[in-house]
Amino acid sequence: MKNTIFKGMATAIVTPMTADGIDYEALGRFLEFQIQSRINAIVVMGTTGENATIEPEDQAKVIRYTVERVAHRVPVIAGTGTNNTEHVLANTRNACAAGADAVLVVTPYYNKATQNGLYAHFKMVADASTVPVVMYNVPGRTGCDLLPQTVARLAEHPNIVAIKEATGNMAQMIQIRHLCGDKLDVYSGEDALTVPMMAMGAAGTISVLSNVVPREAVAMTDACLAGDLQTAARMQCDLMPLIDCLFSEVNPIPAKAAVSAMGFGEEHLRMPLTPMEDPARQKLYAEMRKLGIGV
Question: In this structure, which topology does domain 8-227 adopt according to CATH?
Answer without folding.
Answer: TIM Barrel (3.20.20)
